[in-house]
Every structure is written in structure tokens, then in C-alpha cells.
Amino acid sequence: MLLGAHVSISGSIARSVDRAEELGCTTFQIFTRNPRGWRYTRLKEEDVDDFRRRRREAGYEVVVAHMPYLPNIASPVREGWEKSVRSLIEELRRCDLLGIEYLVCHLGSHLGKGVEVGTSQVVKAVDRALGEVDPKCQLLLENMAGQKGSVGSRFEEINAIFTKLSHRDRVGVCLDTCHLYAAGYDVRTAGGLEDAIRSFDELVGVGALKVLHLNDSKGGLGSRLDRHEHIGLGRIGKEGFRRIINHEKLRRLPMIIETPEDEHGDYSRDLRVLKSLYEGS
Fold it and tell me: Which residues are catalytic?
């Protein structure tokens, strides 16, 4: 089972490997820099070497990175879009330096200009970034929770992007369970999960699905509320996650938790719950 958490790079990027090991992760996700700002420092050669060495020693086959919070590649505003694309290009380069397999990117918001405009901007951003960088790292587009103005909460919107990409073979998808549920896909039930997987396969192709974000949902079905909850304490529930992580088309994917750390528990708690639900080979 490839199961892990989003861990901190505080202190040095190589410390993320130590933190993942301490949690008992078999894969993990990081930000390659401060996710809350536009500015960043270049990766030092010694930091890159340390990360690669520690990862090799620890035996991690798959590592995932996540884009910072501020970029919006669906933006219709030229200045913001250009800044976002530059950030995407830089993150792809950083991932290649670090030897990271996947970079997850939120699609962002069309800022009231409509989904068609937003999907068009995403296509242009991805094509430009991949045309400039040609990375070994694969870019993964993450589904959104259906917030106002968001792009990519429905599989039809992801399909609209994929059908227009010039480099479709170099782009995949990361599905977040909280986002799916909030957007109206009832992955809590057996029938709802099968319907969601069937729909995704028909519109995008299950082969494009490379990573799962496992997060329970504080909001109800179709609430459009992007609020992550501890595994089993939200609306999807333990039995929902039992079905998700053991599904024949999902069980071998890298799975990452991004759950809260609060009075109800932390990553250790949620990883322990998921391991107890996994039914083996």
C-alpha cells in the first residue's frame, strides 16, 4: 500500500524524508518551498543531493510535490496568469532537480468569466509550461470542490481540458476524495463510488489517474465546501474509505492524506485508521 502524508520541509528539504519515515509512510508529498508566497530561493546543490540521498536510503519509490497556494492557472487576468505560469514552470524544474515523480496543481478560478474561459486558460498554461520545460516529472491536475468560480470540479471540465492539451501524455490527474464528495460525487456509498469511477473512466480515462488525496469531508454531499476532516470523522466515513482504498482500480495508487492536526488527532491517527481498513494484497 502506497500510503503517506503531506510532510513539512522545515529545516531542510531532506528533513521531509525523515518525517515521512517517522510516520511510517510508504510515499509522501511536499511543497518544494514556502507555499504561501510568490518569492522563493533557488535550491542549493547540497540540499538537492541530501534529499536525493535520504530518499534513496529510505527506499521511497514515489514522491509527490504540490504547487503553492497562490498560482491560478485558470485566471483570465493576464498579469496573474503569467505569474502563475512562471510559478508552474519553476516548480516543474524544481521537481526534476529533486527527482520527484509527480507535481499536483490546483486548477484555480475563472474569476467569474465562466468555465469555458477557465478551462481554456488552463490548457494554455499547461501547454506553455510543458513546452518550455519538457520535465521528467508528470504534472497532475487536481479536481476542485466546486467552490464558486472554480474550474475542474466536474469530470466534464477535466475532459474539456484534456481533449485540447498538446501534451496529454505528460499530464495526469490527482483526485481528492473530499473535493469529489463536496462537488456531488457520492464516493461514500458503493454505488456512488462505482458511478464516479465509471464516469471518470468514460470522460478522462482511469489510466490518467495517478494519485489520490485521501481526506474526509466536513461538508455534505454537493456542499461545495473544501473543508478536510479526519478519516472516518467526516461525511464519507470509515466504510466509505474502506471501499475507496480497496477498490481494484484505486488500491495500487499512491495515496496521500492532507487531514487536519487538531484536538481530534493528527497524521499518525489517520494513517493508522487507513491501514486498519486496508485489506491486503
Answer: 36, 66, 69, 106, 142, 176, 179, 213, 226, 228, 258
